[in-house]
Every structure is written in C-alpha cells, then in structure tokens.
Design a protein that fits this description.
There is one protein chain. By secondary structure, this protein is of the alpha/beta class. It is globular.
C-alpha cells in the first residue's frame, strides 16, 4: 500500500497533487493499492476523479490514528506543512517514508 499525503485546493493550489498523480497511477498499474490523503477542500474532486482519496488535515492525530500506517509499504509526504509528530509517527510505522 502506498499512501500519498499532500495538500491541494483553493488555498494551496494543485501543484502538489498534480506532481503525485503519476506516482499513484504507476503504483496502481503495477497491481498495488494506493490512496491519496489530501489536506485541502472539495475543489480537488475533479482532478482526483477516479483516484482513491480522502480529505482531511492529516497532521491531526484524529486522521492519522484512523489510517493504518502499518499497512503501508511506502508513505510519500509532499507538503511544506508537516508536523514533527506526524513525520515521526509515519516514519516509525511505515516500511519507508519519503
């Protein structure tokens, strides 16, 4: 499982999401599961049409506790806004955090 944690929407733009979509698509094409976790708003719905994603502030422990990071093979974090606590949790629970 590949989790991609990123940001996007009216406040942040769509650059982070656009950069990560090819990674998601390649992972899926090789038969693996993948999911975007996006700190953003509903303006991303069109760009992520057909892609498994969830909206929420992933820096909050409520969301990160709900997602089983131990299921992940790789976690990609594409954001300038990452808390130390989230990075520490993701890097200790995942096989690989990028």
């Amino acid at each position: 499982m590949l989790y991609i944690f990123t940001i996007g929407g009216n406040e942040f733009g769509l650059g982070h999401i656009s950069r990560c979509i090819p990674i998601y698509e390649e992972w899926i094409s090789r038969g693996f599961k993948s999911k975007f976790i996006v700190n953003g708003d509903n303006t991303i719905n069109n760009i992520l049409d057909g892609i498994q994603f969830e909206l929420g502030d992933w820096n909050l422990s409520v969301l990160s506790d709900r997602i089983n990071l131990k299921q992940s093979d790789i976690i990609i974090i594409d954001s300038l806004f990452i808390s130390d606590s989230f990075f520490n949790v993701s890097s200790t629970q995942s096989n690989s955090t990028i």
